[in-house]
UniProtKB/TrEMBL annotation:
One of its GO terms (molecular function) is GTP binding. It comes from candidate division WWE3 bacterium. Keywords: Cell cycle, Cell division, GTP-binding, Nucleotide-binding. PANTHER family: CELL DIVISION PROTEIN FTSZ-RELATED, MITOCHONDRIAL DIVISION PROTEIN FSZA. It comes from the Bacteria. This is Cell division protein FtsZ.
Amino acid sequence: KEQVDALITIPNQKLLDLEEKNLPIQDAFALADSILSQGVKGISDLIVQPGLINVDFADVKTIMQNAGTALMGIGRADGESRAEVAAEQAINSPLLDINIKGATGILLNIVGPDLTLAEVETISTKVAQEAGEGAHIIIGANPSKGDKSKTLSVTVIATGFDSPYSSDYDIGDFNFTPTPLKKASPSETPSSKPSFEKDSSSLETVTDPDAEEPLESPEDSSDDKKGDDDPWKLPTFLRRG
C-alpha cells in the first residue's frame, strides 16, 4: 500500500457470500480475477480508446494519484432499463466491498452501443447521489458503434476515503447563533456631567501618613500663649527690676 497510488482489493470473504455455495475454488478465484481484469480494462480503455466524452491519463491521474484505498464497481446490462441496472450493479458489486459514500474522487466510464444522452444523465445522477456532496466526478462516455451486443458497461472507481486531507467534520453540523449585545439601562449609562459638578459628599479625604505636619508659628504655640502679664513679652527697657 505504501508503494502504490491506489490499492483495490477483493476480500476472500466476499467469495463465500456468493449465491453459488458449491462453487469450486478455482472458479471462485477465476471470478475474482475476472472482475479485477475488467476493472483494469475499464481504466486502460479510458486512456487508449478515444470517446465521445473523452477521458485521458491526466484525468485518471487526478483521481488515483496518492488516493490510498480505492473501490471499484462494474455493471453490465442490456434492454430498456440497462442504464439503471448497470449503474446499480456498479455501485453494489457483490464481490467488492463497495460503498462510494464519502468518496472525494470518482472516475465513471460508460461504454455501450447506441448510448443516449438520457442514459449518461441517469447513470451519472445515480452515482453522484450515492457518493454525496463534495465528490469530484470525472465522466467518460463511448458509444462503441462497432459493438453489436447491445450491452451497456459502467465502471466506477472511487477514491479518497483515507486521504490525509479528508475531514470527518461537516461545517453544516455546526450552528452558530450570534448573541445580541445587551443594551445598557439608563442607570448603567455613565454620566456625562463634568467631574466638578458631581456630589462632593462622595469624595473622601485621604491623609498621607508620611506627610509632614505644618510648622507652628511662635505666636500660635501653646507654650507662648501666656497671659499679657508675662514679663518676658515686654521689651527690655520696659521691664522693671
